[in-house]
Specification:
Strands 5-4-3-6-1-7-10-9 form an 8-stranded mixed β-sheet, with helices on both faces. Strand 3, helix 2 and strand 4 form a beta-alpha-beta unit. With 180 residues, the chain is of the alpha/beta class. Helix content is 25%, strand content 32%. The chain is globular and about 35 Å long. It is built from 5 helices and 10 strands.
């Protein structure tokens, strides 16, 4: 079975970024470190991101990065970067992979595509309880934040554990439900 891990940090009202696409207020050193540790421990790994996430977040560690985007941009290509214009071709690549862990790192539409197809085996959701955007980019396609457990249940995942990363940030861990 292919291992596909989602990782996201959201505001208390379920946004992964504000209405301008900025995540600065959500940033938490402990959450970032937890993500880097997961990526390091699951090497070899492939990170799946959307175009905006790829453009905004430098690939400092030179990890293999697959960019899923409808709009092709020559600037997306580079060392360690492969571009996919549709989920079908990316899904074929995932299904053909062995001994690799996939990490889905955003943005909102990418999280949704994987979630709605129940592709996640694990999901680490950090919630910054000190930030509320009111509007912005949702983690899910829902128009109203259904809550973490409800959304993860819709994506075929069950709550497993929770740990506090900082005074304001809690990381909730979900795993593929046995019935999925």
């Amino acid at each position: 079975m292919v291992k596909i891990i989602g990782s996201a940090i959201v505001s208390q009202d379920g946004f992964i970024a504000d209405k301008f696409g900025a995540m600065n207020q959500l940033f938490c050193c402990e959450d970032f470190q937890a993500l880097q540790t997961r990526l390091d421990r699951s090497a070899p790994c492939i990170c799946v991101v959307g175009r905006k996430t790829h453009e905004r977040h430098e690939n400092r560690n030179g990890r293999t990065r697959y960019v899923l985007s409808r709009g092709f941009n020559q600037a997306l290509l580079g060392e360690h970067v492969t571009y996919f214009s549709d989920m079908t071709s990316l899904r074929n690549r995932i299904d053909e992979s062995f001994n690799v862990t996939w990490h889905v790192l955003g943005g909102g539409e990418i999280y949704n595509i994987f979630g709605e197809q129940n592709l996640y085996t694990d999901f680490y959701l950090s919630i910054n309880n000190n930030v509320s955007f009111g509007q912005g980019i949702f983690l899910s396609s829902d128009l109203v934040w259904p809550g973490a457990d409800t959304l993860m249940g819709q994506w075929g995942l069950s709550f497993v554990d929770e740990k506090r990363l900082s005074n304001n940030v809690v990381e909730r861990y979900y795993r593929l439900s046995p019935s999925t």
